[in-house]
Specification:
Elements lengths: L1 E5 L2 E9 L7 E6 L6 H8 L9 E6 L16 H15 L4 E6 L1 H12 L4 E7 L18 E2 L15 E2 L1 H15 L4 H9 L17 E6 L8 H7 L5 E6 L6 H4 L1 H16 L5
Parallel strand pairs: 3-4, 3-5, 5-6, 6-9, 7-8, 9-10
Antiparallel strand pairs: 1-2, 2-4
Length: 271
């Protein structure tokens, strides 16, 4: 296991691809709330098939995965502080940044505080606001395979119910959530909304991707457009037949749009 120290926290991460010394480009990817790096790996790694020269870093947030959190980590602001310090410890120069759900919220905050180094930003079903006041989509089960047994739990969270999607829910979400440190999660929950900006002054003018689900009743899609719709180089996609589990329910489209974003990032000089 690999760790980098940030603000006295040993942040766990996994690395794929080129080494730090030989990488032409670096990306840091952040996972969703109470999960760990495995969910982010499953979503982003397919787009790197055939792409040489990339160093890919997947972090575990404090209190999640294998990153233990001291008592002072008690808010999303604290998570951002630890994460930004971990990025500084792992990355020497420019880097691309991506995040899923809560990870998208933190990623936007990191990019807003480090605009000169971030070469591209991908936000998948990103959180934009604290829980009160969100504009949410209307959840509906739009597809169920004949061999999938309906349940109240599935019918409250999964828009596209196939054996593949349900297997990924067990492997990437349920298994990761079991590692979350509940006392830490309770502290962060109490101060869940961050005080940091989600864009630097003037917005974000490098290649961006904002990917949201039409049936997302957790974070919605309208608030994301209000926050990020004016970014001049952002692809903004609202996918039908997709809820908050969009990367699982619409995996092929997610792969294609992430690949397109990486193509656009690669058109910029590495430095």
């Amino acid at each position: 296991m690999a760790f980098v120290q940030s603000r006295g926290v040993d942040v766990h991460y996994v690395a794929y691809g080129a080494s730090r010394e030989w990488a032409e480009r670096t990306i840091v990817v952040l996972h969703g709330y109470t999960l760990d790096h495995r969910s982010a790996v499953a979503v982003f790694e397919p787009a790197f098939h055939g792409r040489d020269g990339w160093r890919r870093l997947y972090l575990d947030f404090p209190g999640m995965g294998r990153t233990r959190a001291p008592d002072w980590v008690a808010s999303t602001d604290d998570v951002l502080e630890v994460t930004a310090g971990a990025v500084d410890g792992l990355v020497d120069g420019p880097y691309a940044l991506a995040g899923i759900s809560f990870g998208g919220y933190v990623a936007a905050g990191v990019a807003a505080g480090d605009p000169d180094r971030v070469t591209g930003l991908a936000l998948v079903v990103p959180m934009v606001k604290d829980r009160p006041g969100r504009q949410l989509g209307d959840f509906a089960v739009l597809h169920r395979d004949v061999d999938v047994v309906a349940s109240d739990e599935l019918d409250q969270m999964v828009v596209v119910q196939t054996a593949t999607v349900l297997s990924r829910v067990r492997d990437e979400i349920d298994a990761a959530a079991e590692l979350a440190d509940e006392p830490v999660i309770e502290r962060i929950d109490a101060r869940y909304g961050g005080s940091f900006p989600l864009s630097a002054p003037g917005g974000f003018d490098k290649p961006a991707l904002v990917l949201v689900g039409r049936q997302d009743d957790v974070l919605g899609y309208a608030d994301q457009w209000s926050e990020y719709g004016r970014w001049p180089r952002a692809t903004f996609a609202v996918l039908d037949s997709a809820g908050h589990l969009l990367p699982l329910e619409q995996a092929a489209l997610t792969d294609a749009l992430v690949a397109d974003w990486l193509d656009r990032v690669e058109q910029l000089p590495p430095g």
